[in-house]
Amino acid sequence: MQLTFPDITLFLAFFAVVIGVSMYKSRKEESGEDFFLASRGLTWPFIGLSLIAANISSEHFVGMAGQGAGITGLAVASYEWMAAITLAFVAIFFLPKFLRSGIFTIPEYLEYRYNATARGLMAFYTMLIYVGVTIAAVVYSGALAISTIFEIELINAIWMVGGIAAVYTIWGGLKAVVWADLFQGSALMLGGAITMVLGFAAVGGVGNFFETNADKLHMILPSDHPVLPWTALVIGLWIPNFYYWGLNQYITQRTLAAKTLKQGQLGVIFAAFLKLLIPFIIIFPGIMAFQLYKDQLTATADAAYPLLIKNLVTTGLRGFIFAAISGAVISSLASMLNSASTIFTMDLYKRHWNQKASDRALITMGRITTAIFVLVGCFIAPQLANPNFKGIFNYIQEFQGFLSPGVLAAFIFGLFVKRAPASAGVAALVLCPILYGTLLIFFPEVAFLNRIAITFIAIIAVMTAITVARPLSAPVTLPVREKFDMRPAPAVVWLGTTVIVLTLALYVIFW
Question: Which range of residues forms the domain containing residue 276?
């Protein structure tokens, strides 16, 4: 799809506004708290939209839509709809504990609950996953979508995505990121809705879509399904969901920057409601692409969404869709870069190498590492075109298994078992990559969500044995942040319950 002069003008104007506003709003970042946590002053609309903008990226437009077009169908929506339930629990149970302690990073909480080794291990693992997997994957899949739709060279698209994200992230940290997310999050929701409407028109209407694709519109798949068996919904899918939405730094960083507990909780619940809409604007178009262009998807289903855009979007909308998809990619990348630099600076540099670092030194280190990480991601990204990775969505999820079961086990066990010793938390983080890697090598035919569940259960068993053998003599006392408004949102339980009921209703409708 060739871009016209008006399309290119609209695209450039959109990002001129995004970059200009985000850099202007973050021009006075003077301390580590300003740069990494937006001065701890975020309100609920920024938190909610920023959570969605950080989450929705090319692995959705490319990978999740591709899964919808492929053998998984609508069932892949479980990642979104179960996330809505997860967010409700995060708002009610997780967030108060994190905000009360005043932490900068999730690994920091592990040090308070267990010891410095646990914090260092999680920080190290997270850095590897962010830089080697998620950053590179988002850059590659985003550039692939952009290059496929708009006929731009892949390598040029890679450096465009990385360059735009780096400019405002290096300049203003988290505050710049969330202001950019305000524009880019709104654009991606609107752009996705436009694509869905165009898709319904192309397939002959809503009724024809549901009738023709009835076999792909089921949320519950057989137990022997190779990607998403129903057994994975019982335990396996909850593990990456709770890890991602409750313990993943590049997602939780904006909630840690909430002005008050009330604002944080309302922001998370707002994001939960938005998550209910995502399958309709991303997975439905993927299924529509299969219905319309099945013969063109023989090599890989990852091209489903880009193919739909390429064939349906008319002159006048191309520039906006180009900006919306690019913005989705850039928002996620900027969030990952900011969080990776936060973890490196606060959990590794300051904690182990320069404990007396000044605010200026912390900001400088954050900016330097952001630049390094985006360069590394852009250099790795082209290698992900190798078919051995079996699709970008699968690539991301498989590698998360090396981290998420152990981190979630350490947090959940430490939260509910007050006398769990430090050695239990360290064991969880050490065993996770070993156990998951062993399962991946010797039992590759087992669905990765089931491997995650097995790893999680085994780690909990080991932590239980360690705790029984060597319990703490007294529970650990966690730090309490002073002068912070910890009054919860008055309707947070009611709102969270509403999200859960709506999600269950969607499962019943698409059973």
Answer: 5-21+31-214+231-383+394-400+481-509
Per-residue tokens: 340: 């990776």
- HSE of 297, CA atoms in CB hemisphere, 13 A: 25
DSSP string, 313-366: PPTTTHHHHHHHHHHHHHHHHHHHHHHHHHIIIIIIIIIII-TT--HHHHHHHH
One domain for residues 160 and 170: yes
Q: Do 290 and 304 meet the contact criterion of CB atoms below 8 Å apart?
A: yes
The number of beta carbons lying within 10 Å of the beta carbon of residue 475 is: 10
CA distance 348 to 346: 6
Q: Residue 60's domain is classified under what CATH number?
A: 1.20.1730.10
What value does the mean pLDDT take over residues 314-328?
80
155 and 182 in a single domain? The answer is yes
Judge whether 224 lies within some domain: no
Residues 17 and 72 placed together within one structural domain of the fold? yes
- Given a contact cutoff of 8 angstroms between Cβ atoms, the answer to whether 174 and 37 are in contact is yes
The Cβ of residue 252 has, within 10 Å, a number of other Cβ atoms equal to 25
In total, how many domains does the chain have? 2
208 and 303 share a domain?
A: yes
pLDDT digits (tens, 9 = 90+) for 111-141: 999 999 999 999 998 888 888 788 888 888 7
**496 and 425 part of one domain:** no
Residues 183-193 pLDDT 10s: 888 888 888 89
Query: Which residues are registered as beta bridge partners of 42?
Result: 258
Distance CA 466, CA 423 (A): 8
- The CA–CA distances, whole Å, from 146 to 311, 319, 350 equal 14, 12, 38
How many CB atoms neighbour CB 50 within 10 A? Answer: 30
pTM of the model: 0.87
**DSSP H helical ranges for 134-223:** 135-150, 154-202, 206-212
